Fold this sequence. Notes:
By secondary structure, the chain is an alpha+beta fold. The protein has helices at 2-19, 24-35, 37-50, 58-70, 131-150, 172-177, 230-244, 283-304, 323-336, 343-355, 384-388, 410-416, 419-441, 443-457, and strands at residues 74-77, 86-91, 96-101, 157-162, 186-193, 197-199, 205-214, 218-219, 253-260, 267-268, 271-280, 307-316, 392-399.
Amino acid sequence: MKHLLLITCYLLSISAFSQKAITKNKKSIVASVEKHKQEMISLSDEIWTLAETAFEENQSAKLLADYAEKQGFKVERSVAGMPTAFVATYGSGKPVISVLGEFDALPGISQTATPTKSPLNEGAAGHGCGHNLFGVGSLGAAIAVKELIASGKIKGTVKFFGTPSEEKYFGKIWMVKAGLWDDVDVNISWHPSAKTEADVQSSLALVDFKVEFFGQAAHAAMDPWNGRSASDALELYTTGINYYREHVEPTVRMHYHIQDGGQVVNVVPDYSKLWMRVRDTKRSGMMPVYERAMKMAEGAAIMANVDYKVSLISGIYEVLVNREGGAIMQSNLELLGPIKYTEEEVVFGRKIQEATGKEQVGMDSNINPLEETKENPGGGSTDVGDVSWNVANINLSVTTAPKDTPWHSWAVVACGGMSIGHKGMLYAAKAMAMTMTDLFEDPKLLENVKAEYKERKGDEVYEAIVPDGPPPIPGNTKK
Ligand SMILES: [Zn+2]
């Protein structure tokens, strides 16, 4: 009986949903994205081929900014001290709804749009996080909304934020510091993924810092007693960090990249350097671990009898979830229905899975139901977190790669340069623009999203985790 009741409820909810008609404005959104489809695909493929990495995304940023300008947006370039950061604005007055677009690639994972590992340019960068799709998909959403404003169907302002260097240094922190979201009511973002859902999970807070040791060089055999080894200190430091792992909360992650461990074997190294990263599910849990990990550099320096220096690089907040916004996004995903794939695309997906040792199940095009928000979600980190502590933020994940695809890998690059990625990008543009339309049309929905943001943020005062001074643009960077 209980089961029967549940099934009846389920069927009722399905039929209630299927009766929900797509509005005229949402039809216009879908038509707009379809109208710009070929241009969006070309733009995405160009950025995919360029594969420019953090703060080097000059041509990619220009392609997006130029296209926005051509579509009638007012574009402000080189904002917040970053040549590749920009804001494109259309419309006037309230509400102000914005969307984020990333476009940086990852070093060393160049790949052709084929389902087996085969670099496009050996050793070059590749879009292993799908940011070519991310930037263009978001701009497509902004353009669709702009067209509704232009035709007088909705009133307000739409903004597209071109946000550089997500993979390193986290460009959005400086944009937040410059107050770029101060007049924005709600921000929308998405990310390429192996699944489709309104994303109501947080991410990990993280902090990056540099540890350097300064010793005394000497001949490694003839007079090593004259040497004080910076690499001894580095080894003692990482040993300390690896012991420390046992005594942190299970939610903490620590990793390091040794950037300089000496140059040759017959010299006692007088300099060493590593890039250290600490993460936790909350910034509040991360900060004490960060303090302790910094202090350990002093201990290592004492043991090796060398000098040391610790310098903050940057750090980001965990994402502040917004379930009210997630529910609006979810309703639009259900209106759109799942992405449909051709047989060739499913075969492509299976080949990717075969090549990466995964079960060959093809694409996951289901629209996941809105999940419970987990206390400790795990996963990675994003500088969308910093935006989400400064304005109400709604997140979306859309399938752009087959199920279980290893992320930040050649497999993601492959899918981002062909129709599987393109379909996800166009879908994301529609879902985000439809959600933005809901917020423009219904002040109550907008207020609910903003109220949840205020409640979740509470009394916490946002403090950007960055050193004073300009962003670390190449050429600007001091050692
Ligand atoms: Zn990413």
